[in-house]
Amino acid sequence: MGVWFAVNRAEKYFRNFMVIYSIISLMLVAAFQFRGLYVCWDDPTISTSFVCNIVGLALCFLKFCSVFIQKRKFLQLIEFMQTNFWHSNYGIYEEQLLANVKKICIYFICTFSSLTQFTVVCYIFRPAVLNIGKNASDRTLIFPMWLDESWNETPYFEIEYVIQAFSSFQAGISFLCFDNIFCIMCLHAAGQFRILQYRMTNIHEVQNTPEDSKNVNKNVLYLSEICLGAFRDCIRQHQALIDFCKLVDEVFREIMLMQVLIFSMLMCLTGYQTFLETLNLPMRISFASLLVTNICQLWIFTYSCSSMTHASVSVNPAAYASPWTDLSMDKFGKMIRKDVQFVIMRSSRACHINAWRFFPISLETFTKIMSTAMSYFTILRQNTLDTANT
Q1: Among 270, 255, 293, which residue's Cα sits nearest to residue 113?
Q2: What is d(CA 47, CA 35) in angstroms, rounded to the nearest whole number?
């Protein structure tokens, strides 16, 4: 989408080109949808499908604009992750925690990306299936344009088809890319909180310098000064993670609110189109794939937020479980006990991703959105049946 680092001038030109190309693609697809909605306004079945596409495109465009406006903060997040998350200074158990986080990210992103791209492919190749056995005058595009028959002749039809296909593909990229990077950020933040918990409960095994590991034997690993230095390193890591979560919230809070508000309507309209008996099989497959993609997308970003929230709160018992009770009541022992108290008080406040400060995002948000979408779908379905019976 063009929102990334640029090392040299060529990469800057390519990044600017991708930004312009993404905006033009989204505007083209949106223009096709508004054109179709204007022409088919009297047909509720077809107009609902165009409204469904318009809602999804509006969400993509709003996410792109929100991230692009806060591009500097967004790149700060990426730089922070590259510097503090993805390095090799981990122990064996910490590497296992990080590997589990990477595995979950791979599963989520591959599943969501595959479903999104499958939906785009269904949209692109659906006309090819419907055009089998038809004349040149009866051919249909990915998105109908309602032009005169001369535009259905070769090569105009092929040019229009290719333009719509490339625009649809870029719209699919904009639909998934920001949710993917958000999932990576939240899940890695949750993994870093778990690493922090492990380090707090095992601060007696952490040495400040290689000389300490040579001169301090096993019987004096609980020396107050050594544990105090290790615990304060954990405090600095905790502060950095809190700042990181706050920055993630600042960048994505508007996106979270838009997704919560739009997803209920989007899934309602998509489900309504999926179960319409008047639709042909290719269109039904397209909308069914879009419905599954929306549910998967909703699950991914709510699960990611919930994981980060629970991991940040779990620092509280980890700090209390640190071996401060084994330390003597000397100068450093008293200091580490005060530090433990401050960490416990601060970690009792969870790190949330808020929907523009209205409410935090969690798995409870997933259930509420699904419940609201089912309610809307039931009402819309019942009205359709009543209209058909009358």
Answers
A1: 293
A2: 10
